[in-house]
Design brief:
Elements: H1 5-25, H2 31-53, H3 57-86, H4 89-124
Length: about 130
């Protein structure tokens, strides 16, 4: 399978932008709110990558998973660096380790969104009419 890097980069940008915006807006302290943000961001980023990549559902899932993992890696690096500056070495290491453990869980909504995106792209294509016009 060939990777459509334009679709992956676009999904990555959507994941990165939504992650940054939700980081600015996030004010809650409940774990369910954090998982809702992460799941929604992964789903939308994967949906974008899968829709642009098209192809089969498994191809869309692969593109969505790659896009969200790239986006989450960049956000993890930014969060780790910011934590290092403001909270210290131990807190920064904790954020890094927890973020690396969460990467696999972050790829699941991206792959699901990518599968739905590639399915939706093929669903929207209208068949050509074969009848004659009067």
């Amino acid at each position: 399978m060939r990777i459509n890097w334009t679709a992956v980069i676009t999904g990555f940008v959507v994941t990165l932008a939504l992650g940054f915006i939700s980081g600015l807006i996030y004010v809650g302290s409940e774990a369910s709110v954090v998982l809702l943000y992460w799941g929604g961001i992964g789903l939308l980023g994967g949906l974008t990558a899968g829709y642009l990549a098209g192809g089969t559902i498994s191809s869309g899932a692969t593109h969505g998973g790659i896009a969200t993992v790239f986006g989450s890696l960049v956000l993890l690096a930014l969060a780790t660096f910011t934590t290092l500056l403001f909270a210290g070495l131990v807190a920064s290491f904790s954020v890094l380790v927890l973020g690396l453990l969460m990467l696999a869980f972050y790829a699941i909504p991206g792959a699901l969104g990518g599968a739905v995106g590639s399915w939706a792209k093929h669903r929207r294509v209208t068949p050509e009419s074969t009848g004659t016009r009067a």
